[in-house]
Design a protein that fits this description.
mainly alpha
Length: 44
């Protein structure tokens, strides 16, 4: 299994574990993971 397929499988499994507001939670996680200065959010 290639890495891309593993990431897709992980994303789908994680999405299924979330309850309400799945889409909003995933959008927030994507935004944080793709932000260069995401580490600065921890200090807020």
């Amino acid at each position: 299994m290639d890495v891309f397929a593993q990431l897709i499988e992980f994303r789908q499994a994680t999405y299924q574990c979330l309850c309400r507001a799945k889409d909003a939670t995933f959008e927030l996680m994507d935004a944080i993971l793709l932000t260069r200065n995401a580490y600065s959010l921890a200090g807020v």
